[in-house]
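Thread: quick sanity check before group meeting

JM: Hey all, I'm pulling together slides for Thursday and realized we never actually wrote out the predicted structure for the chain we discussed last week. Dropping the sequence here so it's in one place. If anyone has concerns about the input, flag it before I start.
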Amino acid sequence: YTDSKVTPGMTYYYVVSALNQTGASANCAPVSATPAAGGALPAGWTNTSIGGSQVVGNATYAAAANGSFVLEAAGKEIGGTADNCTFASKSVSGDFTITARLIARSGDKLYKAGVMMREKPDPNSKMVAMTLGEIGGRQVRFFTRSDAKPAATQRGNDYTWLPIWLRLQRVGKTCIASQSPDGSSWFTVGKSTVAMNKTYWVGLAVAAGNHQNQDAPLTAAFDHVTTGITPPSIPAAPSALVIT
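JM (edit): ok, ran it. Output follows.
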């Protein structure tokens, strides 16, 4: 259940009851939530329209839920030979990780939404992206563009529903894409090698596809957006040891 008719700063209380053929249960204990108003992006972040879209999607931020972003979609594509999308990002250097939970979007009309690392804001720049969208709005894909050819695609879960956690990690020239249903249990979608510059851009990307000219803008909401230096990998525990 999504309560979209709320006022920022006002506290709302909710109860839940179960209903089946024998009737309705008692209400659960009440829980509360206070929606936060979106404002300017954090220091160091910028909002860019990649690919010269005629529509520049807006981006807002709130500190709630460990960093929340709402992006209006612009452009038609993430992947292929060139990108055409809204990109809220910051400049970083060296090994880095971005993690975000995609919690809401404008139905399955929003073509793609996810996390991205790219060398430059140019549409055909080297990049990696991890998105949810496409057919039925349920397919997770890991895109890699390392040269002038169309971006290579590695498939994640084809039946992914919101909310979904997405992660990109860069370690040297290796980029690793992962997804998780709960932010705890992760599985690797794919790895790729991209020789990007040491300094590059990391952030959130959304593309409207063929629905970008609707009267109401298409949006995607992310929370738990965290960025930081990629920690060193921990080797797996040894197995089949023999002691003499």
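AS: nice. The first strand starts at residue 12 and ends at 14. The chain has a mean pLDDT of 91.
JM: adding both to the slides.
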